[in-house]
Amino acid sequence: MKWRGLLEAAADLAWGGSCAGCGRPGPVCCPACARLVREQPPHPVPLDELAGKVWARGEYADELRALILACKERQGLGLVPLLAELAVGSVAAVLRESWRSGPVVLMPIPSSRATVAARGFDLTWLLARGVARRLGRLGLEIRARRGLVLTAGTRDQVGLGVVDRAVNRQHSLRALPGPAGQVVLVDDIVTTGATLTAAAQELRAAGHQLLGAGVIAATPRRDGHRWRSP
């Protein structure tokens, strides 16, 4: 049995053999929930600072939200392959809109050391690597690289409001030394866009060309705006 099957089996045992999306008895993600989230086409996220550059696979709600939460809060490593598969669609949408030729680097939004230690894995890094592998099989010159780090004193964004998120992310990210190039950011969720905006500013200051950002889910807007197919 491949490692993916072993991880899924272990997750099933840990969670009592129920779907993380709908709660029905069965595998870590039942076929119905997997089909439901896979069928959602990528959509542009309406962010003022990065208009047209951020794409998500769906809204952070319902089954998609449940799957992401299960992965992040229950050490759900067995869900990473599915989430990476979803992120492929978002990154591919960015490339379709902004990329013409040349190598591309996927850079994950970094997680704090405490978060990685609590989960037992670095989710955004695994997502970036998974997306790079899948798109690389199509012949694209694409790789994942840890090109951003959190600066000291940065707070976790969870629970912060719109203004506090923006303030918290000012000068919170630093680009690591390396050759400048075309970059696509990778993250699991976008809320206000403060983190992606801060990352974009830092990367541009370091000489990189930001093509956009591919995320799995975006939180629904409070103004009731619903995404529409591009």
Topology:
Elements: H1 3-14, H2 31-38, E1 43-44, E2 54-59, H3 62-73, H4 80-98, E3 104-108, H5 113-119, H6 123-136, E4 142-144, E5 148-150, H7 162-169, E6 173-175, E7 182-190, H8 194-205, E8 209-218
Parallel strand pairs: 2-8, 3-4, 3-7, 7-8
Antiparallel strand pairs: 1-2, 5-6
Helix pairs in contact: 4-6
Q: Which terms would index this structure?
A:
230 residues; alpha/beta; single chain; 6-stranded mixed sheet; 8 strands; globular
Description:
The chain has 230 residues and is of the alpha/beta class. The protein is built from 8 helices and 8 strands. The protein has helices spanning 3-14, 31-38, 62-73, 80-98, 113-119, 123-136, 162-169, 194-205; strands at 43-44, 54-59, 104-108, 142-144, 148-150, 173-175, 182-190, 209-218. The strands form 2 sheets. A 6-stranded mixed beta sheet has the order 1-2-8-7-3-4. It has a two-stranded antiparallel sheet with strand order 5-6. Helix 4 (80-98) crosses helix 6. The longest helix has 19 residues, at 80-98.
Structural class: alpha/beta
In the predicted model, the low-confidence regions spanning at least 5 consecutive residues are 160-167
Cross-sheet strand order for the largest sheet? 1-2-8-7-3-4
What is the H-and-E element order?
HHEEHHEHHEEHEEHE
Give average pLDDT, whole number.
85
**Main sheet record:** 6 strands, mixed
